[in-house]
Amino acid sequence: MTTTTATAVLDKDGLDALVAALVADGRTVVGPTVRDGAVVLAELESAGQLPYGWGVELEAGRYRLCHREDGAAFAHSAGPQSWKNFLHPQREKLWSADRTADGDVTMHAERPEPPSYAFLGVRPCDLRAIEIQDRVLTGGHFRDTGYGERRRGAFLIAVECTAPGATCFCVSMGGGPGTDSGFDLALTEVIDEAGHRFLVRAGSDAGATLLDKLPKRAADSATRDAARTAVAGAADAMGRAMPPVNLQQLMGESLEAARWDDVASRCLTCGNCTMVCPTCFCTTTEEVTDLTGDHAERWQRWDSCFDLDFSHLHGGPVRSSGRSRYRQWLTHKLGTWHDQFDSSGCVGCGRCIVWCPVGIDITEEVTALKAEADEKTHQEEAEQ
After folding, report:
1. DSSP-derived pairing of the beta strands 312-313 and 295-302
2. What is the average pLDDT score of the chain?
3. I want to staple 78 with a disulfide (CB 3.0 to 4.6 A). Which of 278, 285, 300, 349 is the partner?
């Protein structure tokens, strides 16, 4: 965690004032709240809707809410949704067309005014995921204009992680529970004998302007130290880790590994991992008409490389086996993503582990691929 120029301490009333100021400014505030047995992202009217006193128990294929005695608001790991659900929604209408009585066809582009979002509680892993999707969806030759419009107006309030889950592995992916860029405001929750409070830092002019309006006090050394210690402790408490290896190289050298058969025997090819992943971005388009045939619409919706139709060409799908589809997902996410976007597509949030119905663990699979590659190398060296 680093310190920026504008630093202060908010108490719970200050957090209430933060949300109230954003709402008064016409922002659609989205943050974590408890609903249907999970911590989900939803529109908030007040800070009172935050999941105070709730944490989560995570494991491969398992997610449970649990009570926390300390009343923390942000001591929970990544839930089933990411901010992708709002910036890159599951379904989006692109255009509609109508045929008039005289046979003419009129086209209507769907360009609704995007909400002015304020995202409260963006984890550092999700902050990195947003940065990656920015490159993917707005940094190339073929830009997603809808994403760009929603993203430009978004106000990001990061929350540094102090309670990583059993499936978190952001540190081994080059990230961490702390953050020093990419946000408008950053909060670090501190709960100790001195009370429940939030160290807040401004990371942009807009963040500093909003911070000036809030009831706050100067950041004291005790709060700074407590925040720094909590974030450092979270870095040492990751529940998972990727093996320390060049993942891009490993993926490229493991295309014929026997491990793909093992994981294929367990994978349901349901696509849950791609749906919950904060960086997966693939879409398809579909046209729908009414019964008269006089009205048609084109919709963009999420797609998954686990779907048979994803690679369907004349004659059938290119990747017809579960083995080939899982291999495509993992080798692209950790390997060829570098060739396209100059980074890995994984931020270590662990969602794909938690929300896989059969508990497939990406870190376990990569470790197995590394072990197989090492064994192959040893055998080749022994034969020389």
Report:
1. unpaired
2. 94
3. 349
